[in-house]
């Protein structure tokens, strides 16, 4: 890297004072950088539903499962929610990334097949996954090599841009959307007025409070279930129990939920662990789609190879044996036979044919199998597109 670029990067991330709160309310942590200070200008008071005054000078944040208890001039684990003037503040009026791409990429396979989703994200995350594929945005406040400057935008602008680019869904992703839930609700309220559906692409480290707060605006929810051991989640900075509770709560609240597990060699690919995970999902809802996707070396996890196709096929079989009716191997287009397709559980007909993120043919009739008429769980359209238009690659938006 040229010295001028390196100097600029160090300047952006210089320490600017302050401290980070934690779930115990007292542990010291890295001080905010100048990027933190920049983001403070893009902030507003938190939704009342996501802040609890503890009566001792601290405010508890309810946006994610860490439930940080934050003192004056401190911030939470995520570093984007902070207390100033006795008020919990949160991000507003910017994006770190935005693009239009197929909804199958989120991935949702049982919601608006072949449609486009405008996806936006902010900066920051409440976990620190070493293999993060969106680390440029999610780890921007922790990693000096992650540089995604905020772009100012109003909520109504995002909704109008989604409509302009022909999106059926507006989705919050790229960083962890729970920590910016208040901003997402502002955006989604505008999107709802324009007839769009809304989605969260999340790690699932939620709280009952934030899920109830989101429900009037969000219908589609993808949870990244990263494994099924407490050890794995501790390594990533979270708790397995929080995510499992979130999945149960999402179903009880009536969200359409799809689950993704990135199957990582040597991390979460043991058959016994995958079997326990699949049994848990089947116990919540047999019709909840489970995507088992292939890992590729990324970010800080470059010490292992890609996930073998056979591992994904074994995970597919494990899911079916556990009682799940819809299991999809992913990130290996064309290498898993017909397992990328959605098939009618009543007659076996392939009703949505896919290759990767592309819909090759949609044989659904509304929410029913086009062959036998059996209902297939999901969020469907009466007159859907027959196939994905174009290449399916992300396209930039005018923001």
How is this structure best described in words?
With 399 residues, the protein is of the alpha/beta class. It folds into two domains: 3-90, no CATH class; 94-338, TIM Barrel, CATH 3.20.20.70. It has helices at residues 3-12, 34-40, 135-138, 155-164, 181-193, 208-214, 230-236, 240-253, 271-284, 309-321; strands at residues 19-20, 43-45, 51-53, 59-61, 69-70, 74-75, 82-84, 87-91, 94-95, 97-102, 116-121, 151-152, 169-172, 197-202, 220-224, 256-263, 290-294, 327-330, 342-343, 350-355, 358-362, 395-396. A nine-stranded mixed beta sheet has the order 18-17-16-15-14-13-11-10-22. Helix 4 crosses helix 5. It is globular.
| DSSP strand content | 15-25%
How many DSSP-defined strands? Answer: 22
Under the CATH scheme, which architecture of the largest domain would be assigned?
Answer: Alpha-Beta Barrel
The CATH class of the largest domain is Alpha Beta
As a whole number of angstroms, the C-alpha radius of gyration is 21 Å
Question: What's the overall average pLDDT, rounded?
Answer: 89
Helix content: 10-25%
**Euclidean distance between termini CA atoms:** 28 Å
- Low-pLDDT stretches are 1-32
Number of helices: 10
- Tally of discrete structural domains: 2
CATH topology of the largest domain: TIM Barrel
- Biggest sheet, spatial arrangement of strands: 18-17-16-15-14-13-11-10-22
CATH homologous superfamily grouping of the largest domain: Aldolase class I
Main β sheet profile: 9 strands, mixed
- State the shape: globular
Helix- and strand-based class? alpha/beta
